[in-house]
């Protein structure tokens, strides 16, 4: 396990640099101010960018209808069809080098066709390698909530700090099934079962536990961290399972909140954040711009170190006991972790599409062993935090 020690300064430097190595493309407004980076997905010679992020950053309007996306930008109304290389731009048709793909709630559009797709709205600046966009009409200003983290040690208090409530968040639920895979495994059911098992283990160890949901119901991401804060949680763990088009990809992963460092981490975050599309109130979310990443990182900086430690403990336990291969520790911007004023991690309990992982996750004793490893890491974290607080 590599320890990721990243200071805010490095994060700032990372977000400002226009790096080809990161497989992103810089987005600028028409005055040349950076709006942030868009992730790139490689498709042969072509590279794709997510329409959801592009339109959000540029303030363009994006509507979804069956297998179509209708994007209204300054100077164009563009209709894109999934799997269809022809796009309708205003009153004419253009042909793209590759068809738009759909990936978890967003179309992914070929970079080479962007200027033709959005004439008057977007230009490629060959000098800077950046995409320059005309901004759409601004929406009403959003209010950024002040983070109100609780101090772990109260000044003047003689009583030793004790870990209070652990919030367990089974990912997805209701109309949002999450990923699916072999043995008819559906993420929302797997996560709920594991969450309940972890809760049982922790309660037996005398720890107060609250679940964000204990039935198969839909719950917006924002409500989950709000629930954690309202219940004065001291730790927040969101439980998920992954899927991938390539069945050979498998393994347990643990994430903590931070700007994504790798393209793969961006992919996982985009996937888990995609549920926002199902939520009626998606305008309440802060955009996942790099600037917001930095603000959020600073807001949760005091929890970041703890989150990283906890993620490492969780990974170690899973490696030893869960019978799953371990892919690693990573950091990425997950909406569900952002609002939590406490150390927060997100666990991907393996890939439902991978035969070895699916075998473990479909078996009751497999899920039980995994749950025990997650609970053990919480207990170790409790000792760790209580020791630090009393120093
Ligand atoms: Zn998930």
Explain this structure to me?
The protein has about 400 residues and is an alpha/beta fold. The chain has two domains: about 20-135, Copper amine oxidase-like, N-terminal domain (Copper Amine Oxidase, Chain A, domain 1, 2-Layer Sandwich), CATH 3.30.457; about 165-390, Zn-dependent exopeptidases (Aminopeptidase), CATH 3.40.630.40. Helices cover about 35% and strands about 25% of the residues. The protein has eleven helices and 19 strands. The strands form four sheets. It has a six-stranded mixed β-sheet, with helices on both faces. Strands 5-6-7-8-9 form a five-stranded antiparallel β-sheet, with helices on one face. The protein has a four-stranded mixed β-sheet with strand order 2-1-13-12. Strand 7 (about 75-80) and strand 8 (about 85-90) form a beta hairpin. Helix 10 packs across helix 11 (about 365-390). The two termini are about 25 Å apart. The model is unreliable at about 1-20, about 155 and about 280-300 (pLDDT under 50). The structure holds zinc ion. Zinc ion binds next to loops.
